[in-house]
Amino acid sequence: MENGTTLPATTSLSNSTPMIRRNSLNNEAPRREIGTPSSAWRSRADAWEFLGYAFKQLTKGGPGTSHSGLKDQAVQALLLLQALELYWAAPGPAALAPLRGCVDSGDYDAGLAMIRGMSPLMPSDSPRQAGPVTPGQFRAERSLSGVLDEDSREPRPARDRPRFEVLFVDDITEEEADELKTEMLAQRRPSDAFTYELLVVPSYEDALVALVLNPAIQACILRPGFTIGSSQPLGRDLRKYLSGMVGPELVGMPPLGRFLSLAEQISELRPELDVYLVAGVAMESLAGSLTKRFRRIFRRQDNLDLHLSLLSGVAERYRTPFFTALQEYSRRPASVFHALPISRGGSVGNSPWIRDMADFYGLNLLLAETSATSGGLDSLLDPHGSIKEAQDLAARAFGAQKTFFVTNGTSTANKIVHQSILAPGDVVLVDRNCHKSHHYAFVLAGAQVSYLDAYPLDKYAFYGAVPLASIKARLLAYRRAGRLDDVKMITLTNCTFDGIVYDVERVMEECLAIKPDLVFLWDEAWFAFARSHPVYRRRTAMAAARKLDASFSDPGYAARHAEQAASLHDPATGALAEDELWLKTRLIPDPAKARLRVYATQSTHKTLTSLRQGSMIHVFDQDFSEHNQESFREAYMTHTSTSPNYQILASLDVGRRQVELEGFGLVQKQADLATIVAQTVARHPLLKKYFRVLTSRDLIAAPYRETGSAMPLRDGLSALADAWQRDEFVVDPSRLTLDISRTGIDGDTFRHRYLADEHGIHVNKTSRNTVLFMTNIGTSRSAVAYLIEVLVKLAESFEEEHPARGDAGTPSRANPPLPDFSSFASRFQRDPRADGPSSLDGDIRAAYFESYNPGSTTYLSVRELTARIEAGDEVISAGFVTPYPPGFPILVPGQVITSQTLEFMAVLDTREVHGFDSQRGFRVFADKEFGKE
């Protein structure tokens, strides 16, 4: 913004004409609406930054210089901030009137001094937990700096402490609010680990707005006097989003009911926050009935206890048991008489040859390297101390019953879960396009694999997800064949590499209606961040499991099941209705029979803060203790190293802390930044000539979308919430699939040559005509600006080359159809003579180990293989063939190879294909093992 003199269009939050309201800055000026909350963090940061720029420019004017345009823009920025600062404790609305006075009076030097005085505290381009404070509060803190305290630790200066905001909900006057803030300020001590400011709002609705807009809020305090509706000019998007939370039933509700309702909504929006109740009378009678909703209940006079509880609640989330233990261990002197010469830097620090390792990584890394499990440390294989505490905190953060850390990636996490559940002969339903680690896990477990096909996106050369109708049809087919008891579990990827997200709750609900004891494994390798956002959270495995658990306890749910069950059975005989009716019906499971056995594996390192290979297994299994605890322990022992990387474990602990303290703001920013890129590509005249960001309409077929928005988050938070509530599949807004077909360049070349080699931009996945960009919690606005700049430069270069390239905008040649899973060879089917699902599952383990026999396999070139298939021969793959990325096999051991597979391989532009030898070809079973009968 320092390079221009206008307030950028992105600063506006209003999606409609501003409402005219009384304005404390100018009684005649319009009051800005709060429109799209997802970008409020960016609009607020831009407005404050622009004010700093404007005052600086205004001070440079000499006699006769006119700055009327700049003054008008500064007023507009102040009007925008007036709407937003009501929901931040600092600078807050009180800081705006003096600045407006400086604009009106022409005292620009004073205004610039105010801005500079607040500059270290201004919102940055990312939502910070350490919100700014007013100069008055700083003066009060400095006055406390010399106060002695019983805590002997050296007090940290107030400016250096993590800072957060506390939402206080009560309809009180400004004078009462100031008095309350003064009373709470008086409770501060130099030894306090954190500092905070109070944000006071008067109503139920204002409290929800603050929680949606302000990620710095870490705790909420409710008092009986709050009203229901907001008097602020909330935009249409925000009003619509809140409409499902603030209903007419609140009007006649007694105070206790409003307390509970608001506490419930806070938990839905921001479950990590602590909620406190301050009651005026009869608090003893409330205490026993409200403990599930409130961390504590206080009297109005209990300010010190309330202050200490606020700090304690945040400290509980800030606590990192293993990371802290590892730091403390590294600071203690020790002599090493065990394996690991690198421990304490012993083999590095005194070496003239490898000392640069210590220079590069730093001494702390070497001091923390150890194989010790005592001295405050713990054993990952048998945790009882700091690792166990860290895992318990992670379970709380992600809504799981249990959480287990994994230090060698989600590939291993997947194998652990599968081996703990599956025994030889058990049938597992699985998306054929899941990560290769699942397929290898089936080999180890000896499971019968029944592959499900995702819907293909042939035009873009990748797959979507598996429709629920296909899953139900497969389960019903097993039931029809009398083999439903053979089916043990189902494994699906949520979200997919390309960002397709399932309706997890609905999938589990309808599957349990057919098979009540089905076990679910949701591979959330790319979706760990979703827990931190209220819209994304509902489509995570743990949140969906908890929601279903609550539904199953509702008598009304049981009644709905009973009513539906009557329609799905013959009233006279009790026989099951035709499968077609089951397929068309949105099924409701029997809550008395259904068992919630849900597992999620997450690559923490992919989307949250963690060192590479840091992963977690989250468990919500009602039968874990009875049916899976021992087998899970054995599987965990099988796949977990006895020398786990302590740095990875510590990073998982720290990553969990970040999720609980700033995850909401970071994920909100992540999605908003992706939306900026998509909008820029769609609007820029040159970018849209060569590129297009694929939308929900491109990636999800109409039958799977009830809503019509192409990019829901672009249309507002309410549109996003609506799509994620109703559609069978949705697209993660932080995934941007860029169609590059009009450039005439294939995806692999575009990735390596144009992005990585020429401009230092790294992406992970391409198809023949698309490139996948992902924003994450570490993405900055500068990085987004650079990406846009590079895309413009590339488009300009394509434009210059146009005469030699032919017609601009001509798409590359069409892609061949994506290959579905063909079938297992009859040798590996359970009963190849039977019709139905017996031909749909195969013994992948038998095929895998058959290839170990000498002389059982051979190699065929593509030409030889094509000739054999055209001649009508059945050629069987002897191993996995896996393009990487994305990492799922297009051939598995025992699968019949088809011409469709070869056509796809012929145009595949991925450089790394595991299991395919470019010199010798495909490894297949020799004819002597598969002679025709």
Q: Give the helix/strand class.
A: alpha/beta
The percent range for helix content is 40-55%
Shape: globular
Strand order of the largest sheet: 6-15-14-13-11-7-8-21
Measured between the Cα atoms of the first and last residue, the distance is 76 Å
Would you count the extended β strands for me? Answer: 25
Low-confidence stretches: 1-24, 126-153, 803-809, 929-933
Q: Characterize the quaternary organization of these chains.
A: single chain
Main sheet record: 8 strands, mixed
The averaged pLDDT comes out at 88
Number of helices: 36
Radius of gyration: 30 Å
Strand content of the residues, in percent? 5-15%
Characterise the protein shown here.
A hairpin with a 4-residue loop joins strand 9 (about 455) and strand 10 (about 460-465). With about 950 residues, the chain is an alpha/beta fold. The longest helix is centred in the C-terminal third of the chain and has 38 residues, at about 645-685. Helix 3 packs antiparallel against helix 4 (about 110-120). The chain contains 36 helices and 25 strands. The strands form 7 sheets. An 8-stranded mixed sheet has the order 6-15-14-13-11-7-8-21, sandwiched between helices. A 5-stranded parallel sheet has the order 2-1-3-4-5, with helices on both faces.
